[in-house]
Amino acid sequence: MAMHRHDVLVIGAGNGGLATAARLVRRGCLDVGLVEPSPRHVYKPLQNYVGLGLAHARELSRPQAHLVPDEVAWHRRAAVRIDPRSRVVTLEDGSEVAGADVVVATGARIDWDALPGAAAALRRGLAVTTFDDAVLERTWQRIRDLRRGAAVFTLHAQPASGRETAMKPLLLACDHWRREGVLDAIDVSLVHDEPVLHPVPEIEAEWRRHLVAAGVRVRLATRVVGIEGDEVLLETASGATRERVELLHLLPPYAAAEVVAASGLDGPGTRGFVDVDPETLRHRAHPRIWGIGDAAHLGDARTGGALRRQTRIVVENVRRARAGEPLERYDGYTVAPVATGGGRLSFAEYDRSLALRRTLPVRARDEVRAHRAWYLLDRHVLPRLYWHGIVRGRA
After folding, report:
1. Which of 18, 220, 302, 350 is 20 to 30 A distant from 167 in Cα terms?
2. Is residue 85 part of a domain?
């Protein structure tokens, strides 16, 4: 069978890949290929709500076949190697497919082995997370049933997928415990390996306001380095300590998809992620390779909100590159939606320069302040927009 060379080949059908393929079709691209083995598509931002009992697991996913546009050729195998010069992609069954341009949207993978003891702690139920849909039900059960003791929630530096939303389970758990009348009996800590809580001062101030109200101890420049039995091992500049905990909520360690480094698409300092120009999303060494979302080395621009901007820009830049026109620039726009409890949410948007941005019809500072309207947007409006607009290339 002859190898098919598509006009544009998209690798990965998560949020970014599926939306890119749909946008390409809507822009008139007549031959779009999509490489994706998974039969189901997960709306990851909803996992935090499912893990806190505020959404149903059935809302999380839909069949991939219902979402891939009819005009797109779907190759239902995983990519194992991308030849960056010929842009020939080898699939797991040994077959090959190619693209005149290739958009890498392989995402990032959870790597529990990178944290000693994490996998075992997850099996025992000591550790939980809202970032892995395999343990969401157990996460809610453990949070719901905790009545006393020490609870530790973690944040860590990049790489991570939707890193800032790890504040959601912390503040929503505190809200639950407050309503149950047991918050005062639980010693809640936030452990973060960075020296500041958030680099945007307005966002940090809003987060701290809610952390203080909930009585959460914030421990900066502190890293979880392992889990042994019911103890978490912590490391700071002054040394290592171990503490007994009843509950440990982890922002998982993440790694790049193996196909990226296997194909030589990473670069110095990218930790295995696609080495792109962060403004154009174009590979630094291979001009017809593009990278978006969690797959690319883009700093904090690893959110669904960031992807909505990136998918539009990468589709436009493929066209501009072919026409010899100046490429559109991506300013690093991202969003940090953090539910703070009481049916409120801080919807903070900012860019690479750490300046606040806004897409809602209010002042940027007013978006940062937790509000009932932003919670309704994040919990109810955006999931509908996602299924009916974003992944279909309409928003």
Report:
1. 18
2. yes
